């Protein structure tokens, strides 16, 4: 449905801000290069202040990069004002025009483009149908629920058939249940419209559910870029491992190595690992172990003492001590499993493929 | 990083240049502000420091040698200080009673509303007229109630009483907002821990609003110092800086001396303005962030309620009575001697004293100035709040600076700056002595209040609403026309009326610039009051009050009629903020 899918390319983009208190310059975004393919759904994920929204606002044109060039569909757009860029943004606060009704809100951009009246009416009706707001044309914005306002904001952006759709944490003002519904809707509509989308959020489950690719940022620097499976199972560093999902970090040294396989020493215990091709014997290693990838058993890899044991309904939560290292273990569907109590001696059990070596 | 910073700056510049309407607006605005606010003030400095023999302090030496000038400084500061304190205290009393005490009768609530309304519609010198009629030699109260035949209201006490009564409603409105924002649970906690009501007031409420009280004091102090009309009418031989400067020009024809005096006056108000704006204003809101969690329990205890409401009523009724005096002054044959009703003063206004022309001129000039002011102030607030560009700070600072410039100073600046053309070169000399310069002065004098209310209205609007329009393809002008302006139309309307009312009641700068061929109502009132012809002065003032009151009524009707159907919480808050700010900005500080 989009006129033309456009890719977005950021070429060594930096943005410098001044700290209002210390008057010192700092990089809000530092040397970010991205290549977003036409029709792709990409999420910028990171804690607040990581520069993700700044990147989005630079693509929209509200901020100017200090370094680098931004391309939209191959064209450099650095010098274009926001109204001249083929982008449409869905704002965190929805930013609906409160003095217009729904129809006029959605038609606003089309009117500016001097689209004929009957065509505007047709397009608006179609797009309102797409977002499930049939027959709401005459409502005022304050007569809508949060979810409905969100849909209007989405319709308003979609109707312009922009080269790229920009989302600035659009779901953060909705309650938890609505958020899940809306994110599925957004994904469905984006797929149907076949539009390139850049989505900013700090909510990892949103990023997982929506994206073809996730870009994880910290303090203005890209930490990792990849599809949801990759960033979850093969995090590039501890920050990514910790930010997406929960992680245990087992620190030790590499004792033996044979090709890709090897053995690490963790708290004095030998642990078989794979994918150690990038390391040498004697190097420090950190193993990323997801809580749900480990089990608590009478036999296993690392001997431990249980320090916390909590039944949570659909899972059982353990914290155990391996030497000085605290390890979290999640046992899903624990009904028929052995339950360990605080003070019990046991083993943390996992296989070489269950850990990711940093 | 400096090279990198340049790219962003260069891009922002290019984006700005790619938006010609915005660019033109900014350039024109900066030019206008420089020409009509900065330049007249700069020329005062130049004139008073540079004599025929080069730069020197000779002029200042000369004026400080004048006993009358140094006395005027002491007089001005003495009156201002006392007026500031008393206005803040009376304002606090009213604000406290409104926010803390259960007002039982509709009459009382009406009285409070009236008091907060009066400074909006009243010309600045009305109270001076009425105090003369009540307490002067032929005053009703002094002569007929107290039997005093030689009471002298002119001088320090006259100015003090009139200014306090004129300015305290401003303090009342300011403090009311602050008291409302105090979380009642703070006071309840203190009460719960065993404090008496008085102890709560002195240990919780008062410390919390102390910066606000200081703020109110300074605002009134500045207004009192800058006030021209009241000292002119009721000051007698007690000269203040504003009247001394006026006399230096109109009586002594010493324009250079007047320029130097204006610089002194300007320095005093600027210094206070700086303290008020950057120290107290920030503090007074910082201590009271957030809103009251729930409504305050109003005191019904009669031992508190009765004395406080009684005190307020006496004050309020006194003020209202003074205003009522004015139309009667115009209806009695000879005030103080012959109380038969007559229409002759009103008739004479039109038959003998160019009444029609005066009202026509004042009305027309204000009618032209008001939309210009309202539009300019909205554009300035839009640029200041919503846009980021080089020169934004300049625009904001200069339009706010005008608030600290007394009208008399501006008047002298215009005389020095434009009577001989720009920098005495003859350029633009054509506008001097015309109606155009009066309109410009009207605009400059009303701009700060309009801008301030525009800024506070725009701050309530989420920035992303305009960004979304911009993002959808609207250029700056379209965004302003289709989004910003519709969203702040109440503020725009009230700005329009405030500008009109302020213009039609303005006197201090105008009286220095008006030519004999132009008749303005305020100038006429001043003239007849000076001559002691109170019947005519009152007739003029009565009609003027009716015009301003009519304008406010029309505005309220229009806002009710065309007020938006938006009813979200944020909007209501915005409307409330505009509402209070309207009254605040209508404070008719005739600086």
Automatic annotation (TrEMBL), chain A:
Keywords, sorted A to Z: ATP-binding, Nucleotide-binding, Transport
Protein name: ABC transporter ATP-binding protein
Domain ABC transporter: 8-244
Molecular-function annotations in GO: ATP binding
Keyword Nucleotide-binding: yes
PANTHER family recorded: SPERMIDINE/PUTRESCINE IMPORT ATP-BINDING PROTEIN POTA (PTHR42781), SPERMIDINE_PUTRESCINE IMPORT ATP-BINDING PROTEIN POTA (PTHR42781:SF4)
């Amino acid at each position: 449905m989009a006129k033309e899918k456009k890719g977005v390319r950021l070429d060594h983009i930096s943005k410098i801000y001044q700290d209002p208190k210390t008057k010192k310059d700092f990089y809000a975004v530092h040397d970010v290069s991205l290549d977003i393919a036409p029709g792709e759904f990409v999420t910028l994920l990171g804690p607040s202040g990581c520069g993700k929204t700044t990147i989005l606002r630079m693509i929209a044109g509200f901020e100017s990069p200090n370094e680098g060039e931004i391309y939209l569909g191959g064209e450099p757009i650095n010098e274009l004002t926001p109204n001249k860029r083929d982008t449409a943004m869905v704002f965190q606060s929805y930013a609906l025009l409160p003095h217009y009704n729904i129809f006029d809100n959605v038609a606003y951009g089309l009117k500016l483009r001097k689209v004929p009246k009957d065509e505007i009416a047709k397009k608006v009706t179609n797009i309102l149908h797409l977002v499930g707001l049939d027959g709401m044309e005459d409502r005022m914005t304050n007569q809508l629920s949060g979810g409905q306002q969100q849909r209007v904001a989405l319709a308003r952006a979609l109707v312009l058939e922009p080269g790229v759709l920009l989302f600035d944490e659009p779901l953060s003002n909705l309650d938890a249940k609505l958020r899940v519904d809306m994110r599925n809707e957004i994904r469905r509509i984006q797929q149907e419209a076949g539009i390139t989308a850049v989505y900013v959020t700090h909510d990892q489950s949103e990023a997982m559910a929506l994206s073809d690719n996730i870009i994880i940022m910290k303090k203005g620097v890209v930490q990792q870029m990849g599809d949801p499976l990759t960033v979850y199972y093969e995090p590039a560093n501890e920050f990514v491992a910790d930010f997406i999902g929960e992680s245990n970090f087992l620190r030790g040294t590499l004792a033996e190595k044979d090709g890709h396989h090897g053995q690490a020493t963790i708290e004095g215990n030998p642990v078989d690992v794979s994918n150690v091709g990038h390391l040498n014997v004697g190097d420090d290693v950190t193993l990323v172990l997801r809580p749900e990838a480990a089990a608590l058993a009478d036999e296993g890899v690392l001997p431990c003492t249980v320090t916390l044991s909590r039944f949570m309904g659909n899972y059982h939560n353990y914290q155990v001590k391996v030497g000085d290292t605290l390890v979290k273990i999640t046992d899903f569907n624990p009904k028929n499993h052995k339950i360990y109590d605080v003070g019990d001696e046991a083993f943390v059990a996992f296989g070489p493929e269950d850990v990711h070596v940093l | 990083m400096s090279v990198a910073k340049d790219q962003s700056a260069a891009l922002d510049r290019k984006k700005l240049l790619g938006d010609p309407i915005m660019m033109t607006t900014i350039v024109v605005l900066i030019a206008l502000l420089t020409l009509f606010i900065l330049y007249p003030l700069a020329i005062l400095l130049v004139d008073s420091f540079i004599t025929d023999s080069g730069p020197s302090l000779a002029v200042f030496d000369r004026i400080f040698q004048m006993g009358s000038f140094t006395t005027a400084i002491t007089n001005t500061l003495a009156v201002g200080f006392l007026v500031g304190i008393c206005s803040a205290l009376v304002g606090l009393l009213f604000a406290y009673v409104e926010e803390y005490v259960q007002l039982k009768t509709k009459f009382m609530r009406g009285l409070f509303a009236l008091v907060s309304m009066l400074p909006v519609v009243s010309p600045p010198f009305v109270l001076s007229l009425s105090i003369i009629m009540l307490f002067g030699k032929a005053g009703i109260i002094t002569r007929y109630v107290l039997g005093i035949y030689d009471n002298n209201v002119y001088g320090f006490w006259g100015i003090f009483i009139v200014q306090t009564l004129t300015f305290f409603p401003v303090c009342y409105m300011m403090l009311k907002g602050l008291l409302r924002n105090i979380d009642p649970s703070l006071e309840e906690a203190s009460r719960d821990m065993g404090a008496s009501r008085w102890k709560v007031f002195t240990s919780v409420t008062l410390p919390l609003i102390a910066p606000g009280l200081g703020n109110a004091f300074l605002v009134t102090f500045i207004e009192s110092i800058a006030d021209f009309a009241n000292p002119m009418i009721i000051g007698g031989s007690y000269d203040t800086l504003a009247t001394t400067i006026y006399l230096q020009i109109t009586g002594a024809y010493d324009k250079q001396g007047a320029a130097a005096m204006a610089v002194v006056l300007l320095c005093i108000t600027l210094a206070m303005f700086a303290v008020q704006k950057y120290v107290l204003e920030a503090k007074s809101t910082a201590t009271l962030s957030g809103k009251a969690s729930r409504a305050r329990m109003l005191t019904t205890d009669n031992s508190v309620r009765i004395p406080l409401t009684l005190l307020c009523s006496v004050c309020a009724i006194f003020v209202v009575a003074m205003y009522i005096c004015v139309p009667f002054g115009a209806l009695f044959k000879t005030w103080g001697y012959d109380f038969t009703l007559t229409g002759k003063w009103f008739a004479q206004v039109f038959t003998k004293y160019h009444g029609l022309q005066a009202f026509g001129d004042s009305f027309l000039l204000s009618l032209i100035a008001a939309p210009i002011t309202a539009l300019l102030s909205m554009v300035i607030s839009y640029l200041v709040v919503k846009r980021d560009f080089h020169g934004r700070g300049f625009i904001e600072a200069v339009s706010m600076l005008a608030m600290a410039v007394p009208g008399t100073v501006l008047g002298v600046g215009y005389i020095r700056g434009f009577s001989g053309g720009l920098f005495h070169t003859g350029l633009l000399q054509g506008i001097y002595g015309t109606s155009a310069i009066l309109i410009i002065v009207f605009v400059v004098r009303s701009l700060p209040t309009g801008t301030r209310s525009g800024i506070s209205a725009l701050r309530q609007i989420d920035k992303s609403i305009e960004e979304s329009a911009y993002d959808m393809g609207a250029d700056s002008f379209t965004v302003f026309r289709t989004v910003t302006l519709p969203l702040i139309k109440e503020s725009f309307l009230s700005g329009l009326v405030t500008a009109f009312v302020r213009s039609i009641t303005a006197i201090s700068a105008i009286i220095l610039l008006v030519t004999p061929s132009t008749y303005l109502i305020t100038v006429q009132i001043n003239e007849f009051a000076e001559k002691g012809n109170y019947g005519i002065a009152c007739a003029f003032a009565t009609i003027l009050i009716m015009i301003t009151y009519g304008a406010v009524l029309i505005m309220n009707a229009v806002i009710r009629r065309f007020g938006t159907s938006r009813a979200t919480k944020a909007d209501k808050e915005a409307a409330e903020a505009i509402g209070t700010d309207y009254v605040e900005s209508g404070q008719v500080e005739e600086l």
